[in-house]
Amino acid sequence: MKKRLLSGLLAAAMAATLLMGCGSKSAEVAGAQRETNGKVGVAMPTKDLQRWNQDGANMEEQLKAAGYDVDLQYASNDIATQVSQIENMISSGAQVLVIASIDGDSLGTVLAQAKEAGIKVIAYDRLIMNSDAVSYYATFDNYMVGTKQGEYIKEQLDLDNAAGPFNIEIFTGDPGDNNARFFYGGAIDVLKPYIESGKLVVQSGQVEFDNVATANWSTENAQSRMDAIISANYANGTKLDAVLCSNDSTALGVTNSLEANYTGEWPIITGQDCDVANVKNMIAGKQSMSIFKDTRTLAAKTVEMVDAIMKGTEAPVNDTKTYDNGTGVIPSFLCEPVFADVNNYKELLIDSGYYKEDDLK
Ligand code: BGC
Asked: What is the per-residue pLDDT for 108?
C-alpha cells in the first residue's frame, strides 16, 4: 500500500474515532503519562489485501487511544504463522485477543491455551469455528452482503420482467472462511429461483459452493478460473451478462481476465470492500458495484467489546442467533454493509474521509 494512502487512512481512522465520541476520553489519557489499561493482541490474516491493512491500522489507533498496549501481527495468509503469533501474544501477557482468522477451523488448540490462561477472545470479521474459547464475534452482516449483491443482479437484469435467458458466472471466497458461505448463501438464495427456472444460465455449470470457491480469495486464482470459463464458454461470441463476485479481490481477477479475453458487451460485476483498485474500476465502468464495509465502525465496535471485557461488563451485541461456531452460538455485533456504486461513492468514501479524492486517481 502506498504510504500516502496509509497515512490518509490512519488520519481518517483517528477522525472517525473522535467523531464517534469514543475517543475523546482516551485521547486525554493517551496525551498524559498514563498507566496502560492492559494489553491486546490483534492478529490479522494478511497485508496483501487492502482492507486488512485498514482494519489493523484502525484497531491499533483506536485501542491505543483507549489506553491499551497493542501487539498487532499479520500472518501472510499462513496458518502456522498465525498460530505462532497467537502463542506469542499469550505468552507475552495479552489479556484479550482480537483475531481475524485465516482458516476458521485451525485455531482450536492455540485458543484452548488462551482459555486456560484466562485470556478472552473476540473473533474479528471472520468467525472462529469449533472453539469454546471465543467470547464475542464482531463483524458485518455477511448474509446481507450476499443478499445485496444478488438483489443488484436481479434488479439490473430485471429478472422478474425481462424475457432472458441471461448468462451468469459465480465467484465466491475461500472455503476456510466461514464468511464466504454466508456471502454465497445470501446471493444464491436470491438468484437460485431464476437459475432453476432457466432465466439465468450458468454456462460453465459451476454453481455449487465448492465449485465456485476461490482459494485464499486470490485475484490470480479467480483470474485463471475466469480464463478457463471464457475459453470454454464465451470465446464463440456468447454474451456474458453478469458475474457474481463475493468480493473485490475476486472481482479484480474476473475483470483482468475479461479485459484480456472477452470481446462482448461488458457484464455486470459485483464486489465487496470498496478497495481502491475496485473503486477506480467502478469509476471507469469496469465494475458495477461494491459493498462498503466501513472498517472504522467495525474497529470502534470491537474496541467497545474489549473495553467491556476488561471492565468485566457485558459487551454490546445485536445478534444471538446466527453465528453458531460448532460449540454454540457466539454473541455477535453485526454492522450494516452499505451498497456502493459510481453514483454514491463520493458521499460514502470521500465525504466520510475514508479516502482522499487523490487516492482514487
Ligand atoms: C471479508 C471480506 C474480504 C475477504 C477477503 C472476508 O472474510 O469479510 O471483506 O474481502 O475476507 O479478504
From this structure: 96
